[in-house]
Amino acid sequence: xxxxxxTEGKIxxxxxxxxxxxxxxxxxLLSLAVTGLVLAFGQLGHWIGFAxxxxxxxxxxxxxxxxxxxxxxxxxSAWLVAYFAPGTLANFAQxxxxxxxxxxxxGIIVSSPAALGGALMVFGLxxxxxxxxxxxxxKGKPSDA
Length: 145
Description:
Elements: H1 2-5, H2 13-41, H3 43-70, H4 76-96, E1 100-105, E2 108-113, H5 115-137
């Protein structure tokens, strides 16, 4: 539990990937549940899904914070904003219908990105890819002995 909720210390790549996989599996399971909510409650279901996404934000930030310390990064707050703000903003925009259009296909309401929504999604994906390389693939700084 300390891996995802305690803010002290730093972690190596192995522990980062363990935490990442825990959040990923939990997120997939939650997405399945949210899909049912969206189908049942429409736009309210989208807002419930966004609120649940925000619950995952804290453990993801904690995990990344510890890994950034291991990487010897200065200005950790700026890195966290750079990695998490674009995706969170894209999800909010989609939920609020900003830069997205909603249409009914086969009795199901789906959203399609317009230019702004597409740009936000691409920006979010690029930030996620950079974060995965930085936090998950690159070595940490050696400890001072």
